[in-house]
Design goal:
Layout: H1 19-38, E1 43-45, H2 52-56, H3 86-96, E2 103-105, H4 110-124, E3 140-145, H5 149-157, E4 161-168, E5 171-172, H6 174-183, E6 187-192, H7 206-214, E7 223-227, H8 245-251, E8 258-263, E9 275-278, H9 281-291, H10 300-310, H11 313-342, E10 348-350, E11 359-363, H12 368-377, E12 380-382, E13 399-402, H13 409-431
Parallel strand pairs: 1-12, 3-4, 3-6, 6-7, 7-8
Antiparallel strand pairs: 2-9, 4-5, 8-9, 10-11, 11-13
Length: 436
Amino acid sequence: MSTETAATVDRTPLAQRSPDELAAYLARQRTAYDGLKARGLRLDLTRGKPSTAQLDLSDALLALPDGVRDADGVDVRNYGGLAGLREIREMFAELLWVDPDQVVAGGASSLRMMHDVLVQHLLHGGVDSPRPWRDEDRVTFVCPVPGYDRHFTMLASYGIEMVTVPMRDDGPDVAAVEALVRDDPSVKGMWIVPTYANPAGSVVTQEVASRLASMPTAAPDFRIFWDNAYALHHLTEDEAKSADILSLAAAAGNPHRPVAFASTSKITYAGAGVAFLAGSRETVRWYLGHQQFASIGPDKVNQLRHVQFFGSAQGVRDHMVEHRAILAPKFAAVDAALTAELGGLGVAQWTHPRGGYFVSLDVLEGCASRVVALAEEAGIALTPAGASFPHGEDPQDRNIRLAPSFPELGEVETAMAGVATCVALAAAERLTPDIG
């Protein structure tokens, strides 16, 4: 941490300082960084995983289910029920603002469901596809950035081209998206994390969602992969409501365009939750029609224990308040550390999310890789620079995704003070002639 206190920090932007002032600042940051390395830290801010305290909130699941039959009298230990238990589909349909018959409840991973939907489009085409996507000359996806690295690596694994658009506070740059999809039939889809986006914390507004649902597309089978992973992960009492993309698309005459996904992976147990797919009724039939060759049914025992654990949709909401109590102080610690060290210096900008699992940090152009390397040398593991861009390539080398959920609060405070020191040092180096 810097040798300056919050009360004595000079808030003059670094770029406006004289050469002597900048040299003095650089010397102080080098001293602070040497002290940081000497502490021998081993801290990790790389992945947005639930903490042990969050997982403990769901330990009552381990004593469930009470009985082996669902509300319809079905023995959940046996085969069948490919769409999942009616009760859990009804519960999460209410939370996701869709009809229960538009929902499939699956296994633990929504990412697996996304992968299945993508692969089935490649192999067979979708509900309204003129041909399988593999028979097209090329397939392109629109990717808002910064975005979720696993979306990008999935596309890359199948040779799908990616074109980026900026992610803004109200969602992806919709005018840029409209321009890309209007005349190019190779643009078959796009990813969106609509609520508390990974990592920017953006929330897609109803207006932006409406334009995405109704925009003309050259591809008749254009798909929006609506990954609503953080829909219920509020950090404040000002809870964002997810845009109703399925209704908007249906009203616009494009009912099959969106396929929505969600899960309880960060609500109950990350490795033993329940995942959900939602779409038009035709999309649900299409999905189950292909799934029948891969599965005889999901883990209905686990679905029943979740039904009994929550009791109702309101039970899920109440449970998320407990998560908020654990997470919110950690996000406050991120903001406090960055503000104390970097506020007013003109060397970094960061998001102030109202929900989700990440803070998006932008440093001076060309400095993100240096910050990550400095942090690693000091024992603080960060997500690689560029991870929030396709192929891990941030053209400006500015963005770093911060994931404060897993460490203890004290560790977050220590790690973020260290990160701030690394940002300050990298910025001073960049702005100093003959170094930057």
